[in-house]
Amino acid sequence: MLQQQVDEYLAYCAVERNLSPNTVQSYRRDLALYAGYLDASSVAALADVTSDHVAGFLKTQSIGDPERSGLKPSSVARIAASVRGLHRFALRERWVRVDVAKEQRTPSPERRLPKALSVEEVVALIESADTGTPFGLRARALADLLYSTGARISEALALDVDDVASGERVVVVRGKGDKQRLVPIGSMARDSLDAYMTRGRPALLAGGTGSAALFVNERGRRLTRQSAAADLTDLQRRAQIPGHVSPHVLRHSFATHLLNGGADIRVVQELLGHASAATTQIYTKVSVEQLREVYLSSHPRAR
Q: Who wins on pLDDT, 270 or 210?
């Protein structure tokens, strides 16, 4: 009964809430841990779960047990959110009379400031591409598009050629929940895309079957996250930029540079596809921290 209830909730998340496969898979892993804990506690259905069961499970995830160490606060917070979602659904479906997980709270995970490249580093990264090869043209176009639009890597890889019409200065991006938004694209990124679509993409398609995907591999299929990350790693190596440059670093850099340039946070929120301005607020903290560093290094009486 318990596993059936979990499966129904996951189906609801996938079909009715239209959550991404990655998110549903994350819920599945979290709830598998929860179901295992409840099963070990002789709980057969959600109607038999008490608030003590929920609290005990979350405590176990936090401090660990003899077989494994405790999880990081951010992981415990994510698992707690999965458990609360399951119990809310159970109440809605009238499987239970009371939501025993409603009041369960975990310490908020520390929100680390996102890393952002400098403008000079972004330029060096993009211009390090070997545009004499289809792979270099693809890597440059991908990096340029990520930085110019602030798109998530999943959004960029989901783009079809028709989403980036020739000569247009906007891109049709499909975000979370399949919500569409129009995002402007700069002239330099547009030039990189034009070069890739003219000389790079046809060469890659020649090795496989036709595809509507904008970014394709050497077999003509839609580019994977792993291959996209490898493209950026190659650019980072060529540009000799320290640290780790992931696709999300370019998204962070896009938002940070816009705010540093005076963009309104509500505009940045719209461009990033954030449902709430609260999510975008973290980038203002980055800007304030950078201002503080400049102040401390420049003001004669700051130290």
A: 270
- Phi first, then psi: give them for residue 160, nearest 5 degrees: -105, 165
- The catalytic residues are 152, 176, 248, 251, 274, 283
Residues 174, 209, single domain; the answer is: yes
Of 244, 278, 298, at which residue does a domain stop?
Answer: 244
CA atoms within 13 A on the CB side of 53: 24
Alpha-carbon torsion (151, 85, 90, 32), positive or negative: positive
Residue 117 sits at φ, ψ, to 5 deg, of -75, 160
Both structure tokens of 85: 């979602």
C-alpha 154/C-alpha 147 separation (Å) is 14
What single-letter amino acid sits at 48?
D
197-218 pLDDT, tens digit each: 999 999 999 877 778 999 999 9
- Based on the fold, state whether residues 84 and 144 are members of the same structural domain: no
Q: Are 87 and 46 in contact (CB under 8 A)?
A: yes
Is pLDDT larger for residue 251 or for residue 112?
A: 251
Is the domain of 128 the same as that of 233?
Answer: yes
Q: Return the amino acid letter for 173.
A: V
Q: Are residues 224 and 132 in the same domain?
A: yes
Using an 8 Å Cβ cutoff, are 271 and 302 in contact?
no
Residues 70 and 128 in one domain: no
Which residue, among 134, 163, 89, 294, has the nearest Cα to 227 in the 3D structure?
134
Q: What pLDDT score does 128 carry?
A: 96
pLDDT in tens, 121-170: 999 999 999 999 999 999 999 999 999 999 989 999 999 999 986 666 88
The residue written with tokens 């598009």 in the block is 145
